[in-house]
């Protein structure tokens, strides 16, 4: 039987993998993917608590988090395309100066 604890452990593991990706990776695409992984880990815990308490609140919050994640992905990728066109790289270390 899968309990609430199992979902929360999985959510915590996924969240810390995302934190590790944001802190230690230098490719901006990987950093954006790590942020998405952290948001999905939070969604998993929202849904798990929602199922545990038999309410729909967690589902509603997860829906809003998915909407924010979609907007973040679209805007973030558009910014990355513009940075790549100007600088020819998507490495975070190479983009510390925003001037040419």
Itemize the secondary structure elements and their pairings.
Blueprint: H1 4-24, H2 28-53, H3 57-87
Helix pairs in contact: 1-2, 2-3
Describe this structure in words.
The protein is an all-alpha fold and about 100 residues long. It has one domain: Orthogonal Bundle (Helix Hairpins). It is built from 3 helices and no strands. α1 packs antiparallel against α2 and α2 packs antiparallel against α3. The chain is elongated. The model has no long low-confidence stretch (mean pLDDT about 90).
Write a concise keyword list for the protein shown above.
100 residues, mainly alpha, Helix Hairpins
Could you state the order of secondary-structure elements as H and E?
HHH
Q: With helices defined by DSSP (H or I, 4 residues minimum), what is the helix count?
A: 3
* Structural domain tally: 1
Radius of gyration: 17 Å
Average pLDDT level: 91
Q: Please state the second-level CATH architecture.
A: Orthogonal Bundle
Summarize the structure.
The protein is an all-alpha fold and 100 residues long. The chain has 3 helices and no strands. It has a single domain, classed as Orthogonal Bundle (Helix Hairpins).
